[in-house]
Amino acid sequence: MPDISLIAALVGGLVIMAFAGDFLVNGAIALAHRLGVSPLIAGIFIVGFGTSAPEMIVSLDAAMEGRAGLALGNIVGSNIANVCLVLGIPALIFPFVAGGSGQGRALGAMLIATALWIGLTAIMPLHAGIGLFFVLILFGYCGYTFLAARRAVALGIDPGVPLDETPGISVRRALVYVPLGIAGLILGAQLIIAGGVGVAEFYKVPQEWIGLTLLAIGTSMPEIGASVAAALRRRGDMAIGNILGSNVFNILGAGGIISFFGPISVAPTFRQYDHWAMALAAAIVAALILTKARIGRLVGILLLLLYAIYVYGLINGFNILGLFQPAGT
After folding, report:
1. Distance of alpha carbon 217 from alpha carbon 225, whole angstroms
2. How far apart are alpha carbons 82 and 257 in whole angstroms?
3. 204, 33 contact by CB (below 8 A)
């Protein structure tokens, strides 16, 4: 069994990240409201960035320490967990219908980001040029989303972003929550990296596995919490929007940032298995939204089962790419 301090660091880091992300989002939204910032801006930028902040911080910290496997695994694994867990768990609580206002635009951005990530990493390592490309696309997407949402509000149409989610927090408390959330994210990331690397080395498993599973689930906790809260308020549209936005921020934001520390070569396991799983997850969300499907308990159970199958395949070294190669090659 690995040193208890490594397990404590890993678990403690995940717990700290979950609370810190919540503190940062609530504090930032409260401050924006008190300072007269448009709730529309808060809904698009603060919530979108805040729920993806754990993935960004963990991936950045891992990249700076030369732990590329953890950084890449965290990004890809979080996108898979966001669909299977963040969508599957709320579906068990309250059924909702996909295909709400603004989801088509967000879906298009997620599919483009996913295709770019899989396509580019298949032919070249991540480097500063790709990082700049990703970040510019992210800024362009945020700007376009803001303009489209503001136009929808002016026309009296639901813009598809949470405009009424201002927490009842005073300015004084918000001024404490924001720096506390940032500090917690940094501390949690450092603990997660230390614990995750130690556990991986003890069990002699690839760092990619830790990033794709433990870190991915841990850093997806803010999204899970937000989606469960949305389901309890019977706002399934917010749950789906949260997933789409988070996946875009994960790839273009976290992926773009770590690319500046490149060149970072993507391990074969991603091309052989994990990228296929991420593409399938994206296709499932697309199918649900385009058909305006009812997402109930059956769909939730199937998504959770799919995630269990994915983890089983990861552990057993499934190679989807090998199925398309001629025998004997």
Report:
1. 12
2. 20
3. no
